[in-house]
Design a protein that fits this description.
6 copies of one chain form a homohexamer. By secondary structure, chain A is an alpha/beta fold. Helix content of chain A is 32%, strand content 22%.
């Protein structure tokens, strides 16, 4: 969908910035719905999840099309998605926010991790969530859910634009996840958002230091007073940021 | 998606049977989720809506992709859907059950009706609902909604399998709507369901007559007593059904 | 559950008073949750629905217990409820506010009406709603729903205390329905509530007349001014109320 | 809150335009949340509701502060709102989208109508809804609800900015309601929105005529073809619009 | 309700299998709704919860029936349930998914644990949740909730079939809980499900080992390739499973 | 709003009692809705949060009024609330239960903590939740949410009565939070509730000891047997409570 190839530099920047900063940077550009709502880390991780979106679309399962035997089919889209998600990508699943059944379990997600994916996000459930939590690869879900995906979800399409947690996700969009949740950065904006957020984080680190030293918010955050601005410049020099 | 072509005979049968009968006939075959939930007639009509599904899929609107000017694009999928929905088909729209914005208004739906469509179903909103209500063509929606679809919905795909009101809808599935709502009949079952339902309705008409004459339900509905069965056979002969 | 037998006098009073007045009278006694939430008339009627509750409890349907053939069982609780609901009673169904399937259809409700029931209330769906609407007997539901009750609901218990639309309903409680909806009056309060409401309605008719003649609300409703009180006494004498 | 005084000309224009047109005109200006969600006409009216907002804010009722006797207080904000809402204004109530209790009943709304208000909008319930439906003044609500407002809602503030159906409403904003629902026009935009919508409606009337005569949507709506533009100009001249 | 007595062998098997496996085994038998939705461990435990269901049904609390003094009644069903739940059983409470009030607190649940119950499940709230979390006995709830159950829930029936988290629960059904949540196994299926799941878990442990060694999913899970099958047989022999 | 000044004695008592006890004590006085629903600790703390409410009211954000630049305004109510919340008070935010956007982030909440506030409660989201979790000051929220408050919420009023999680909160009401959640004590009841709860907790500690020693609930909790009462008196003497 997008020809954008994320550079190592942008990847490195996005590893260090918060979803809150990304949300603000997108807000300034008029994009208000890029946070995937209702999705939580299966287990918090030390590092951000960063990678382009590779998508899987589910529709409601019709019983006659979804006997347990469909998984024997080598073309089953859920299995194919797990085996074809490119290295460094994030598998994003549209389960219509219906977590009454799983969209995957620990065996498939372990395979996904071993294949080198950067993470997985679903607005449905995950089963064997404890096994998924134990992986190094970050995973985001609505909640644990024991029932097999066949109960409610038929895997249908791979790498088409989808909805996930009420956010639009186009294949190739850059997903960034931290403990607050997951932001979707439109691919064409990834470089500039990454750059802008590095600056925001630098300033916020300075502000947090000032606040911890007793500074008031007004005039400092955002910076509307000249002497705060000067202190920030000094802080940047001193800290190399 | 389906090669099934509905015959005139099946069409005629489905014009006369209720969605309740269809739901029961599908239930007997293990299909429990074919009723489009949360969707109501814009205005009740005298006749059933009957036709194969032609689908339109919306995803959440990203602000930069959905300025008002996109409608000037001759390829805009919503407009294309209206102009390409085949005669006798039902346009079915997947709006992710989000009726906070419209999925179409009276001008487009009037055009759809004039092009010969059999009806329209959306699990989102419709605007200018009064104008739509006045058309002969049946329309089903979640509720009236003034905001343009661009506010929340980006029209994306035409004639792919979708979710509508939590039911799976494959292009070519046969939709039947009455005042209770809309059922989705998998294409390959349409002929047998139509036939079975004609029989069910015949029996239910007999039962209703008996009940109005003071008969009790137990033993009659379903028919487990021999003499009810005989009375029904006599009724059928007398009434030619 | 209750030995209370409603007198003809109380029945006659409750035929004339509004659910709004009943709600206020119960509110004065500390009862705040006696309105059945989320339930609407299938079709508005000219007269109030009034009668003691006869209850039917559904639980979620387990597939192996609910094949279509269970209706052949003469003991099926839904059928038994229809055939045993006493004359003048209201059949109240607990469907856990889940209207994705019906709790009854027009044949059963027609039988119920012919047997002399005073009405039916369900917090689930009704199928063939148009047929039910056409009956003289009032019916209240969450919405039309084509799927058979077996899809989601197993009829289990008759005449036990239930929840209906988040209100507690004990067998024998007096239900009153108008176009606003349905109130549940605990049986032991029915006589005094009926009497009190007749007085409230008398006063409110007077107030409405005054308002239509240009009177202000404050001091009049509730009546805190002496001369309003005197005018009301005069009005009562003149109108025999 | 706003010094804007709506002119008769703007009032007259807004009487004739649809909420759908207003939503689109506001959308073009970046305002996406001005439709009051989840609110319906108590009974459809022939004419638009048009008027500046006069607001009433409810918070959750604390039992000790809301005995039935509070209505005897001449300062009770609900009563005061009814008696002080200026002529031609729309009373807009913030009930936190909780319709499990009423926010007013027919006596108060009758008084409001007689005092010359242009309408009433609540995102909660209304009781004695049938009496309210019978008034000439338009009323919008979430649904009928018998319980007195004291059950869940304490009237607190008059004419402060509120939320109604998830839309921001500032006192003096111009409300327009038709059968689709209610739009909130920020006061400072009312004149230009009214003017723009008159033009949109003129064009849409032309388009609808063309569609009824067999024209296709693409190229016509929006108008991207020269000859459609010329036909429209001719139509305007002929019809004086 | 059920005469089934769980054997030690079945109990031991169910201690070792996951709710995900149970869900799949039931799915194969056409049972799709046996997962208790919206219910989470108060604190994750090392071992599965396993035991037959002993049920408690709440209905909405009517204020006059639920003063704080009702707990002084030796027959209060909530207290009786705590004192009569058989050793090794799981107390399952139907709170209509309403967690705005508790269904029990730490004192009662401590007593239940000391009496030898296998666990507790409620689709309502629990208060003093930290005290409950500290017990060895597993507990599942919707969320912490400080208000006493009397606020919203009247304990009514003991050991009748109920709904819990939208799943049907019959007394004597076997409940199994792990960190994903709780499955309800119909009593008559417990032995065969336990046996089948032991086999599934054996195979899944093998698969997980293969995946960790780099194997692809397709052809392995489910096993459709002959050589995977042979490797599995070898693995079973080697590992004694 | 309230002239009540909490004494050190009451503060100390409330530090030691549970929200469950407070809920019961308020229930005895007819107050059933003082638990803030749907709000959870960002991270559990060892001590109770105790302090008078200082409130901030948000309404839905209108896009033209909420560009990112509004934070430069020294009067922005969110910033002013952070800088003026009195020492020892709890900042309580009304976000209409809409957690799709944040109501504050870690910099502001760090400043609030450093200024000596007793805690923060919002029924919306918080961003940089991990930074907030790390503070000593307790914080309660609906869930983490990366988007800036401007996305959905306009900060409007300071220290007016609000709704938070469906509970009424008046400035000066005493908030107490533990791991179950947050209770709102009307200011005029704080002293008597604190005193009563100390007694309840004393008794419950005794009961828990008895239960751990094998005592049954009935007759003990509540205490209806004489010898339990005597044992309790002895326990009090021995333990100085």
């Amino acid at each position: 969908m997008s020809d954008y190839i994320m550079s190592d530099a942008t990847h490195a920047k996005l590893k260090k910035v918060s979803t809150a900063s990304i949300a603000t940077a997108l807000y300034k550009r008029g994009l208000r719905n890029q946070f995937i709502q209702g999705v939580f880390p299966v287990r918090p991780k030390q590092e951000n999840m960063v990678g382009p979106a590779f998508t899987l679309r589910y529709i409601p399962a019709r019983e006659d099309r979804n006997p347990i035997t469909v998984f024997r089919n080598a073309d089953h889209p859920q299995r194919v998605a797990i085996e074809t998600c490119p290295v460094g990508h994030v598998l994003v699943m549209d389960a219509r926010k219906d977590a009454r059944a799983a969209t995957a379990g620990s065996i498939l997600i372990t395979r996904l991790a071993l294949r080198g994916a950067a993470g997985v996000v679903t607005d449905g459930g995950l089963r064997d969530a404890e096994g998924i939590a134990a992986l190094d690869m970050p995973a985001y879900f609505a909640r644990p859910s024991a029932p097999t995906n066949l109960t409610l979800h038929e895997a249908l399409d791979i790498n088409v634009p989808i909805s996930c947690g009420d956010a639009p996700v186009f294949p190739g969009d850059i997903l960034v996840g931290d403990n607050d949740g997951v932001m979707v950065i439109p691919a064409h904006l990834a470089d500039e958002i990454a750059e802008e957020c590095v600056g925001m984080e630098s300033f916020e680190d300075f502000v947090l230091g000032e606040v911890r030293n007793g500074a008031a918010i007004i005039g400092l955050y955002p910076c509307t007073k000249e002497d705060h601005q000067q202190r920030y410049e000094a802080w940047r020099k001193k800290n190399g940021r």
